Amino acid sequence: MINVGQWIQKWSTIQPKKKALIFEGGSFTYRQLSDRIHQLSNALLGMGVKKGDRIALLLYNCNQYLEAYFAISRIGAIAVPLNYRLAPPELEYLLCNASAETLIFDGEFVETVKWLCQKIPVKEGRYMGVGVEIPGWSLDYERVIAQNTPETPDFPWEVTGEDPHLIMYTSGTTGLPKGAVLPHQKTFYNCLNADIFFELKPTDVMLIVVPLFHSAGLVITASPTYYQGGTVVLHRRFNARQILEDIEGYRVNKFLAITTMYNFILQRETISRYDLSSLETCYVGGERVPPSLVEEYREHGIRLRQIFGQTETSILLWTTEEDAMNKTGTVGKPVPHGEIRLVDSLGRDVRMGEVGEIIARGPILMKGYWNSPELTEKTIRNGWLHTGDLAKMDEDGCFYIVDRKKHMYISGGENVYPAEIEKIYSAHPRVFEVAVVGVPDEKWGQVGKVFIVLKEGSSMTEEEALQYCEGKVARFKIPKHCQFVKVLPKTESGKIKKSSLREISPEFRSP
Fold this sequence. Notes:
alpha/beta; Rossmann fold; Luciferase, domain 3; GMP Synthetase, Chain A, domain 3; five-stranded parallel sheet; 27 strands
């Protein structure tokens, strides 16, 4: 069943009374969720939404988000999840770039939407507010649901696996965000991969705290869980205590988060106070995973397994239980439904142990970037998507991420991969987070600069920080500059925005 929007309906006939979703103390059975999805699908069709139309979502995590996602997919339209933390001008760019004609938004964003309404292509009568109704301007989501039938939606067009159902804008660590166009087929094959890795089954309870506007929330966890008929416990926002309470209270057995979230849980809560025995495995992705973090959770009896991928590809690599235990730093082996190679700058396969760029092909790829044919051609060449991630492979076929291709810098003619240096600093007992960038240097062309966030109550001098790498790596790799910061700038997916670090570095300013 390739149409993503049909999955809830399928399970509603098999297990209609089973809980499909738990959110803020309430719950929805598969029958209830399926009915609401059909009601919204019929409402959208009644508004004149057609196949391929873009419908933007400016929502916190909530049941309406998942309803909209499946309803939009069901009728062949395209959902455009928006990062609610963006400034109004940034949202304006995304809405205009996607040519979205319908907008479903949270009531908290009324003022933002009012500012946007004269600048974006959303049609009159196509604004729908969750928890708010503005007569003559915006419809109330729940009223729309109540006024429409839960009958299976009827429409004259066919929805195939090749048809897009999502435009997910990448984090934009450099430049403007790019809209990755994801077809039903890609999400379907990602679910096949994820279901093998997560070992998903209908009895599973998946806790989702990562934002649904990010691939990790919507595509990598929610979609596979519903493909297998499991239960989702959804959190509106990240709250370390609530996460632990709900794992205990709802007997959650599957959980995925980014590294930063796992760090905050350790820092803010005493894990041993909670009964987490239901947890089979926790999954981590989105950013570099320090071995020390894996070990800390292991001491609490919690297994962390890493996944690696992109919005454009979803999951590409995963760690087995054995590899996670025995191969420190690996991101695992390739997924079954996809091909992966490591190549040099000329597109030639590199030898074992050598650094190369990860390229991928298969049904797990995006169709391309929305309204960006030149960028699409640059990224997907001869059917292979060039990820921009550098890695090496060992004799067992396990991959190790070296760095982003664009983050590598050259010092005195030698390639330096910041991730290698960041890994060393991450092991320091006083370091909470770290990032390394290359900065201009008259003598060497570029040298390293380390940005450090210290753990609460810790202190360190610049001299101590710069001396810490002595004897651990070659001298040309050791940073020559250090700057302590309170936080590292990040995208909503948890990736460090190194372009922002360069902006605050005096080394980049003209004399």
